[in-house]
Design brief:
Blueprint: E1 3-5, H1 14-18, E2 24-26, E3 31-33, H2 43-47, E4 53-55
Antiparallel strand pairs: 1-4, 2-3
Length: 56
Amino acid sequence: MAYIISDDCLSCGACEAECPVSAISEGDGKYVIDADTCVECGACAGVCPVSAPSAE
């Protein structure tokens, strides 16, 4: 299951820089993860200061 980013996102961009497959991009008010590209590595969750990314 791909990761998703909750509304707790601060739009800091830490997760986007960490994603090895560039599945994360800036959305409207928060970052979003492309489910088709996500490889479920969890790197985004490891760097997020508010634990916004999580497995669906």
